[in-house]
Design a protein that fits this description.
13% strand; alpha/beta; five-stranded mixed β-sheet
Length: 178
């Protein structure tokens, strides 16, 4: 299953893999977790049409079981290519499989809501929306984490700004020399 969203999306969401509804419609996050994701995007000041949504594995594992390591490895090149083509400012991991694709030793319960940078990519970790459907006590935590998206984007843009300002100042300084 391919991803979905604009080719110039600032934010890319990476889930685990297609579920039953996603497999039927060949679109990511269209089942109950997808409906909740649409609501959560609003809390982050986003709409589905603003973001790119994909998964770590591109095919539904049999009986909706967790993806096996060899399945994750087989799909790795596709996610890498998607990230390269979209080149998002922010990647939001949804759940433990997406988290472990970037940070294999981390636990989602310890790093959710944290913004980090790896190999030039800014990554914000969140519980998978399905977690709120299965464990209602996580819903507020997930909502709070989604509310951090605008702050994360602002921080990323701010971090990029000084470089541009420094270059502009250097160009201005060079112009004064002539």
């Amino acid at each position: 299953m391919p991803g979905e969203g604009p080719a110039d999306a600032e934010v890319m969401f990476v889930g685990e893999g297609p579920g039953f509804h996603e497999d039927q419609q060949a679109r990511p996050f269209v089942g109950p977790a997808g409906k909740l994701l649409d609501e959560l995007l609003g809390l982050g000041g986003l709409k589905r049409s603003d973001v790119y949504i994909t998964n770590v594995v591109k095919c539904r594992p049999p009986n909706n079981r967790d993806p096996l390591p060899n399945e994750v490895e087989a799909c790795k090149k596709y996610l890498e290519e998607q990230m390269s083509l979209i080149n998002p400012k922010l990647v939001v991991t949804l759940g433990r499989y997406s988290l472990s694709w970037f940070f294999p030793r981390d636990s989602i319960s310890k790093v959710h809501g944290h913004l980090r940078r790896q190999n030039g990519t800014h990554v914000l970790h969140m519980y998978h929306p399905a977690a709120a459907l299965h464990a209602g006590n996580l819903r507020k935590t997930i909502e709070d984490d989604f509310r951090k998206i605008p702050q994360a984007l602002a921080k990323i843009r701010e971090a990029a700004q000084p470089v541009a300002v420094a270059e502009a100042e250097a160009a201005t300084e060079q112009m004064r020399l002539f």
